[in-house]
């Protein structure tokens, strides 16, 4: 059942698989909702950043993670992924990372782990990616050339297993994966926000991977599987949400997009555009917490989406704003070279700062 990858066949096959993934994820949401209620993995409305008004099941990420793992295993079994684009060892590392985040997510949803314990699971998941051979090997320079990051290597033996660690490529890979994982984790504060961002981000990477310039059908397929899994969960997650992503879902989101951007080789900037607002906002909020002497990993309601809510906008309008920004900047980035993407990143950072600043002014004016 190996696929013959040419453009027309690729698009049709990928769309069919995407529909199957979305249906699987949608059906899984009913099961995980029931499971969350039985296991008492629910989110109680407590005020502050907990703006929902009724007890809501968590564990949404379990249905998404199950759908991802199922179709990645099926794809590997039936030869859907070409070895040229994605190696089987990379997919194994990704699946292990998903399992780790699902386990950590369940423990947090059920027992409300401390930030120090929560971070262990994203770190282990990111390490599974690096150890399996997925790493950022080069970055594009302003002149259009490539700068290699594989400057030093260390060989590590653990029993019969041998690993090669490269610096600074592996270090930057870990930082990138943790950054995008925590960006979506912090940003998961409004119904459907992160799920929709993931559909857009994965869709952008899939579109770029199917262009004649790059033509990476296996990358496009994996991106569609990721996007479809979150799309299938959207009916349960849109306002008013019947179920939340939970810790597993919010971390799987950024982790998956971060992994996709690396295996795609040239799509890190595209992923940044899709998650630009969450990344910039997470950086601003973390800096503000450090200035106030508070842990940067401690949740609060100082994020941009909460500020926009306080200005009087509805949840649906705020979510729509973020989706439009992600789609607009990501679509523009598809046609830009390195210098243009850098300017676009600067513009996105500026937009985040301006939105946060003016939202703060409006909040203060409403209180006067």
Description:
The protein has helices spanning about 5-40, 60-80, 90-110, 115-120, 120-130, 170-185, 195-210, 215-235, 245-265, 270-275, 275-290, 305-310, 315-335, 340-365; strands at about 40-45, 55, 140, 145-150, 150-160, 160-170. Helix 2 (about 60-80) packs antiparallel against helix 3 (about 90-110), helix 2 runs antiparallel to helix 8 and helix 6 crosses helix 11. The chain contains 14 helices and six strands. It has a two-stranded antiparallel sheet. A two-stranded antiparallel sheet has the order 3-4. A hairpin with a 5-residue loop joins strand 3 (about 140) and strand 4. It has about 375 residues and is mostly helical.
Percent helix: 55-70%
Low-confidence stretches: none
- State Rg: 20 Å
Query: What oligomeric arrangement do these chains adopt?
Result: single chain
Main sheet makeup = 2 strands, antiparallel
DSSP E strands, number: 6
* Strand arrangement in the largest pleated sheet: 1-2
Average of pLDDT = 85
* Strand content range: 5-15%
């Amino acid at each position: 059942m190996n696929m013959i990858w040419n453009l027309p066949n690729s698009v049709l096959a990928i769309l069919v698989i995407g529909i199957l993934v979305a249906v699987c994820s949608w059906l899984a949401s009913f099961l995980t909702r029931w499971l969350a209620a039985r296991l008492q993995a629910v989110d109680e409305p407590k005020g502050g950043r907990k703006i929902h008004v009724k007890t809501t099941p968590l564990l949404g990420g379990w249905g998404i993670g199950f759908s991802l793992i199922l179709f990645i295993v099926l794809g590997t079994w039936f030869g859907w992924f070409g070895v040229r684009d994605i190696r089987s060892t990379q997919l194994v590392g990704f699946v292990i990372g998903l399992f780790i985040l699902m386990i950590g997510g369940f423990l947090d949803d059920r027992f409300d782990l401390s930030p120090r314990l929560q971070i262990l699971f994203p770190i282990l998941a990111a390490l599974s990616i690096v150890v399996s051979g997925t790493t950022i090997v080069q970055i594009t320079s302003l002149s259009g050339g490539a700068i290699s990051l594989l400057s030093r290597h260390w060989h590590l033996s653990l029993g019969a297993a041998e690993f090669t660690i490269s610096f600074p490529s592996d270090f930057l890979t870990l930082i990138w994966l943790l950054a995008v994982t925590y960006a979506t984790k912090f940003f998961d504060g409004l119904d459907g926000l992160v799920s929709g961002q993931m559909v857009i981000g994965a869709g952008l990477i899939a579109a770029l991977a199917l262009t004649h310039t790059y033509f990476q059908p296996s990358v496009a397929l994996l991106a569609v599987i990721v996007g479809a899994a979150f799309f299938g969960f959207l009916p349960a997650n849109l306002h008013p949400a019947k179920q939340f992503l939970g810790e597993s879902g919010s971390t799987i989101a950024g982790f998956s997009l971060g992994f996709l951007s690396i295996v795609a080789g040239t799509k890190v900037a595209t992923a940044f555009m899709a998650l630009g607002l969450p990344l910039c906002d997470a950086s601003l909020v973390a800096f503000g917490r450090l200035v106030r002497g508070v842990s940067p990993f401690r949740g609060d309601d100082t994020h941009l989406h909460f500020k926009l809510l306080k200005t009087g906008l509805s949840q649906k309008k705020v979510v729509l704003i973020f989706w439009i920004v992600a789609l607009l900047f990501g679509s523009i980035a598809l046609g830009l070279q390195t210098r243009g993407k850098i300017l676009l990143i600067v513009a996105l950072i500026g937009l985040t700062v301006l939105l946060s600043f003016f939202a703060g002014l409006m909040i203060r004016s409403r209180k006067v």
